[in-house]
């Protein structure tokens, strides 16, 4: 890794196609100029991913977690253009959650680059719907009702790093729990739920502001009038997180949901699991059991049908061709959903603005290839990829 110093980084602006030159000074952006220079790669702020369970063989939700795994996951994230992310812990026994929270905290203490990238921790569960379908791949035995006392223990273990909690608002305890978390400075998201409109409205009234991977974590068959999707799509107080990998939502679903929420109330996450980025083949995991990872990134439950997803396996870069070529967004709009939009949820990261942190990524994409290629990544002004 090179030492942060003054440098000029050249690329093309995804929104305008014009040549752009970003000058950094130490850890910050010193100047941004538009000028033609012949560089063909696109240049943007580093991606911000609010939901990362693992990647490239590094698992945050295994039976044990160590500091080396957290550090290795950060390095894997940089290679796919992510400079800020929320390590995501799913439903598990409290003792395992506490241990994982302590480990992530310790990784931030020991490694400055980990601390620079980890803007907080996302706890997805264990207060989710217990039934098959909405529960997704979360273990049923560990699903439990919201508990303020348990949250206090999480936050103590994490040193205050818990910044986002996903829950189902069907629990009677949900509104009071949400109010407590919001007062404590934690963002609350609705997900893995079959809650009705009244329960969803109560949760939003209590302070919930996000929807976790909307359209997924759901029953396969829904009542066409009364289901958990319509109230979340209709409520302008909720910003929706989407998995735009081409597998979790069809192009028509994603296009329709983005239109309903509006780009100002939408953002993209990867929701990758440990098998993301690994070679195609059959695997066995502690949580998902036997699964098959296809060459196109579809991670399927190995049940003989191959029709059911077992998690997400594609990085944030994979969303760009989906959003542009299948949904119809401009490249600038697509990149904003991976940078500025999620960055708003973690203190305003993911922006190219003078005076802000020099977290940048450059990528090559000809407009038709399946996956953009990361050409360079800068973390706090240092070249790291």
What's the short version?
The chain has 385 residues and is α/β, with parallel strands linked by helices.
Can you characterise this structure?
- By secondary structure, the protein is of the alpha/beta class.
- It has 11 helices and 21 strands.
- It has 2 domains: 81 residues, Urease, subunit C, domain 1 (Roll); 302 residues, Metal-dependent hydrolases (TIM Barrel, Alpha-Beta Barrel).
- The strands form 5 sheets. Strands 5-8-9-10-11-12-13-14 form an 8-stranded parallel beta sheet.
- Helix 4 links the parallel strand 9 and strand 10.
- Helix 1 packs across helix 2, helix 8 crosses helix 9 and helix 9 crosses helix 10.
- The chain starts with 6 loop residues before the first strand and ends with a strand.
């Amino acid at each position: 890794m090179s030492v942060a110093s003054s440098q000029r980084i050249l690329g093309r602006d995804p929104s305008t196609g014009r040549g752009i030159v970003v000058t950094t000074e130490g850890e910050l952006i010193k100047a941004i100029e538009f000028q033609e220079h012949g560089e063909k790669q696109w240049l943007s702020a580093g991606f911000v991913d609010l939901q990362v369970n693992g990647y490239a063989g590094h698992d945050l939700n295994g039976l044990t977690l160590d500091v080396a795994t957290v550090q290795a996951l950060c390095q894997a994230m940089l290679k796919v253009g992510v400079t800020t992310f929320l390590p995501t812990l799913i439903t598990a026994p409290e003792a395992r959650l506490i241990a994982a929270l302590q480990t992530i905290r310790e990784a931030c203490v020991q490694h400055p680059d980990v601390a620079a990238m980890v803007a907080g921790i996302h706890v997805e569960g264990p207060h989710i719907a217990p039934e098959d379908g909405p529960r997704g791949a979360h273990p049923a035995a560990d699903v439990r009702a919201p508990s303020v006392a348990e949250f206090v223990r999480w936050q103590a273990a994490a040193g205050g790093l818990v910044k986002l909690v996903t829950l189902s608002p069907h629990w009677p305890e949900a509104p009071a729990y949400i109010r407590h978390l919001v007062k404590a400075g934690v963002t609350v998201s609705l997900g893995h739920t079959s809650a009705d409109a009244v329960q969803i409205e109560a949760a939003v009234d209590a302070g919930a502001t996000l929807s976790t991977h909307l359209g997924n974590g759901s029953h396969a068959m829904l009542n066409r009038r009364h289901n958990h999707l319509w109230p979340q799509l209709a409520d302008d107080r909720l910003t929706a997180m989407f998995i735009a990998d081409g597998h979790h939502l069809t192009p028509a679903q994603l296009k329709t949901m983005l239109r309903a929420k509006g780009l100002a109330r939408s953002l993209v996450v990867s929701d990758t699991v440990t098998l993301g980025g690994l070679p195609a083949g059959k695997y066995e995991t502690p949580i998902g059991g036997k699964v098959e990872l296809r060459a196109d990134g579809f991670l399927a439950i190995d049940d003989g049908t191959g029709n059911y997803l077992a998690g997400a396996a594609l990085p944030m870069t994979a969303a760009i061709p989906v959003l542009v070529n299948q949904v119809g967004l401009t490249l600038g709009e697509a990149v904003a959903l991976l940078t500025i939009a999620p960055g708003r949820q973690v203190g305003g990261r993911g922006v190219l603005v003078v005076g802000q942190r020099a977290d940048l990524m450059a990528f090559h994409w000809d407009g038709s290839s399946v996956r953009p290629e990361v050409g360079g990544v800068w973390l706090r002004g240092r070249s790291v990829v």
